[in-house]
Design a protein that fits this description.
By secondary structure, this protein is an alpha/beta fold. It has 7 helices and 7 strands; from the N terminus they run βαβαβαβαβαβααβ.
């Protein structure tokens, strides 16, 4: 892992920030992408304070041109991209009858199209290298259905399906694909009535738990592809 290069979207908070620190501790050079410069700078500063390497690229995954620039800048600086962690996401806990369609659009554009954008921008470089690893942070909500988060659930189902299609397309080019599907994680996305009710009985995962799973998948030998990791809080049934 030492000296490899990773791009992480949604890198300023939650799972993305924890993953950046986990990978940087293994001397992976991390490039953090997110909409807000402030949180990205905070993560970069924490990593730099430990003597590790990180840079930030404030950008929105819904802007494909911006994702192309992130990849181009990374290749110009480091010469390659070994790992992409597609993690950026927003949440919605509205009902079908009462939700805001304008926000639904943002959820789908960020969670689904945003992931497609950064993957599309990165994949040609990995194909040229003949190697690489795409890790998609999806959710157990991409495998089950329930009442309470219908648009978020739909977005994660789409992401899981896309990830499996990607695996089949990319594998012959030497590119590994992994779906990480966590249950409830203690991140800013839990700040909603649905999650607060669930937390009365379930102790959520920590972002570092997901970061360790991502590192585990990435550190396998090149011939070994971990295609899917599901991790839930012990008391989470769904």
């Amino acid at each position: 892992m030492r000296g490899s290069v990773a791009i992480i979207t949604g890198g300023g908070t939650g799972i993305g920030a924890a993953t950046a620190e986990e990978l940087a501790s293994a001397r992976v050079r991390v490039v953090l992408v997110g909409r807000r410069p402030g949180p990205l700078a905070d993560v970069v500063a924490r990593i730099a304070a430990r003597g590790w390497e990180a840079t930030s690229h404030p950008a929105d995954v819904t802007d494909y041109g911006a994702m192309e620039k992130v990849v181009a800048d990374t290749v110009a600086q480091y010469g390659r991209v070994d790992l992409l962690v597609s993690n950026a996401a927003v949440h919605d806990a509205s009902s079908v009858a009462g939700g805001n369609p304008a926000w639904w659009r943002r959820v789908v554009e960020t969670n689904v199209l945003g992931g497609m954008h950064i993957i599309r921008a990165t994949l040609p470089q990995m194909y040229r290298q003949g190697s690489g690893h795409v890790i998609i942070v999806a959710s157990v909500s991409g495998r089950v259905t329930y009442v309470g988060e219908p648009v978020y659930v739909a977005s994660k189902h789409a992401l899981v399906a896309f990830g499996d299609c990607l695996r089949q397309e990319a594998s012959p080019h030497g590119v590994r694909v992994t779906l990480i599907e966590p249950g409830m994680v203690d991140t800013p996305l839990l700040d909603n009535p649905f999650a607060r009710e669930l937390m009365k009985t379930v102790t959520p995962l920590q972002p570092a738990d997901c970061a360790r799973a991502i590192r585990f998948a990435f550190e396998q030998p090149p011939h070994c592809a971990v295609n899917e990791i599901v991790l839930r809080p012990v008391k989470q049934v769904l």
